[in-house]
Amino acid sequence: MKDLSIYIHIPFCTEKCFYCDFLSFKGKEEYFEKYKIALIKEIEDFAILNKDKYIIKTIFIGGGTPSILPIGYIGNISEKIYKLFNVDKDIEFTIEANPGTLSYEKIKHFKASNINRISLGLQAYQNNLLKKIGRIHTIEDFLQNYENIRKVGFDNVNVDLMFSLPSQTEKDFEQTLNNITKLEPEHISTYSLILEEGTKFYSMYEKGEFELFSDEMDRKLYYMAIDILQKNGYNLYEISNFSKHNKQCRHNIVYWTRKEYIGFGLGSSSLIDEKRIVNTNNLNDYINFKNNREIEILEKKHMYSEFMFLGLRMAQGIKKVDFYNQFNIDIDSVYKKEIDKFIKNGLLIEEDGFLKLSKKGIDLSNVVFSEFI
Fold first, then answer.
1. Tell me, what DSSP letter sits at residue 11?
2. Are residues 327 and 242 both part of a single domain?
3. Using one digit for the tens of pLDDT, what is the confidence trace for 318-340?
4. How far apart are CA 279 and CA 265, in angstroms?
5. Are 114 and 77 in contact (CB under 8 A)?
6. Any bridge partners for residue 163, and if so which?
7. Chain centroid to CA 96: how far?
8. 115 domain-assigned
9. For residue range 258-277, what is the model confidence (pLDDT) as tens digits?
């Protein structure tokens, strides 16, 4: 059997965060039940054709805000997967959660539903900042739910943080990092604010309601995160992700290393048999079982490109022999010109058969990635 990862998209939120451009909707509670039914049918349809073909290695329920769903819904979805698929005994099963939509009973329900990893969206430790970015929770909500997560018995927790937020100071971010490391989650993700069209922040920025951080300040905060987190035992294993020993997010590594995954739910994408498959993003169509998928048979040049710009996100970089093993062609015969240029410019480092971004390359990663796209 082949290894496969599963992503499940829950496109509902209590409120839309000001920076978020993910496929999600607020105020759609009347769709919850219909969505669950359509989601389970999609899972069943795939399983009928592929039941004994795959072993499920990781599951990730994301959104949106999966923790907005009433108690029982996640259990129904998990039960269906375990009934229909061969699930690895050592599975990593993650759910994203907003501290403003959690309760002790809901956390217990997650544990009873085979989930063994929770990713908490905190973003900042200051209540004034949380309010300014559109979060529905307070730091007190987060701390109470973090305590409950540990009490229920979860021993694999991620906390999402953001920097370069409007009105955020260096001291704010330093305080956030120091306070979170004291809690000792197994994994911490840190993301710089990126303005996306269609978000409230994008509109506010166009109206001149705030200024973006300079590149220099953004990089200063990024390296502050690396310094503080590494001093506290967190290993930087991907541009934005840090973990304790052996606590890397195995599901995300599937994406970065181009392993196969299936996406269920609105707008979800899949990579199977070198096909990129994307579900409809029309909610009404989806709940009425009209999932008109876009299917792209990937050309070799697209596969090569993905291998490069996804793999270079990893701190260890890409193993040159892996390129040959995956595509039966030497990496230098495809990208020698680009690789030599970036090594000469100090953006890439080649050592022990690996290619990886230098510190300068990380700062200019978009320049490097764009060359391979």
1. -
2. no
3. 999 999 999 999 999 999 999 99
4. 7
5. no
6. 192
7. 9
8. yes
9. 999 999 999 999 999 999 99
